[in-house]
């Protein structure tokens, strides 16, 4: 809550050096919009992890977001639509697309995730693992997804990499302590990036 425009401005050089900008809603919504406007001018990839989710995000903030990654509960809050099944998830995601989000990735825990844009809907089943603690699984997914994009992987490869990383994270206790190394993700099921 202490992130201000002044703080952003004082770190503008670092932001401008970045190719991908990840934001979440723990910082003030006004700052999310401010940063988005700055980086849009430079053609940066903007990923929004809408946690904690809030109702009625203004369309000027959503419009142009490259990737938004809500879980099912966050999607329900963002859209005001009850989400009970995959059909509901698709319909709710399309609400975000109509508001200008380019791509929606809905994470569904052990059920996998669903990728939706104006032309494509693709389901990615979860890796079968014994979950011990889901703390930080979403953050792990987002970070791994962004890492893969930064290495010129397409959205599909990036989602698969994010799923591998988060599926390892849920098999461990804790937040930071559960995050796998790059080598662990690459070794999972022989998946090399």
Written account of the structure:
- The chain has 193 residues and is α/β, with parallel strands linked by helices.
- 44% of the residues lie in helices and 13% in strands.
- The chain is built from nine helices and six strands; from the N terminus they run H-H-E-H-E-H-E-H-H-E-E-E-H-H-H.
- It has helices spanning 5-10, 12-17, 29-40, 59-62, 72-79, 86-98, 137-150, 155-169, 182-187, and strands spanning 20-24, 45-49, 67-68, 103-107, 113-117, 121-124.
- The protein has a six-stranded mixed sheet with strand order 1-2-3-4-5-6, sandwiched between helices.
- Strand 5 (113-117) and strand 6 (121-124) form a beta hairpin.
- Helix 5 crosses helix 6 (86-98) and helix 7 runs antiparallel to helix 8 (155-169).
- The longest helix has 15 residues, at 155-169.
- The radius of gyration is 16 Å and the shape is globular.
- The chain starts with a helix and ends in a 6-residue tail after the last helix.
- The mean pLDDT is 92.
């Amino acid at each position: 809550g202490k992130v201000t425009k002044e703080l952003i401005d004082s770190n503008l050089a670092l932001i401008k050096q970045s190719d991908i900008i990840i934001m979440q809603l723990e910082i003030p919504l006004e700052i999310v919009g401010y940063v988005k406007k700055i980086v849009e001018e430079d053609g940066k990839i903007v990923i929004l992890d809408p946690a904690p989710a809030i109702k009625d995000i203004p369309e000027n903030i959503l419009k142009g977001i490259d990737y938004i990654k809500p879980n099912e509960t966050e999607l329900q809050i963002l859209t005001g639509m009850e989400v009970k099944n995959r059909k509901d998830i698709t319909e709710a995601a399309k609400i975000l697309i109509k508001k200008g989000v380019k791509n929606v990735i809905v994470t569904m825990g052990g059920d996998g995730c669903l990728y939706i844009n104006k032309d494509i809907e693709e389901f990615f089943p979860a890796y079968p693992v014994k979950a011990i603690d889901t703390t930080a699984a979403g953050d792990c997914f987002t970070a791994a997804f962004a890492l893969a994009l930064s290495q010129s992987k397409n959205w599909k490869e990036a989602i698969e990499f994010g799923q591998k990383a988060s599926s390892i994270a849920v098999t461990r206790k804790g937040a930071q302590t559960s995050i796998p190394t790059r080598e662990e993700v690459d070794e999972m099921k022989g998946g090399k990036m």
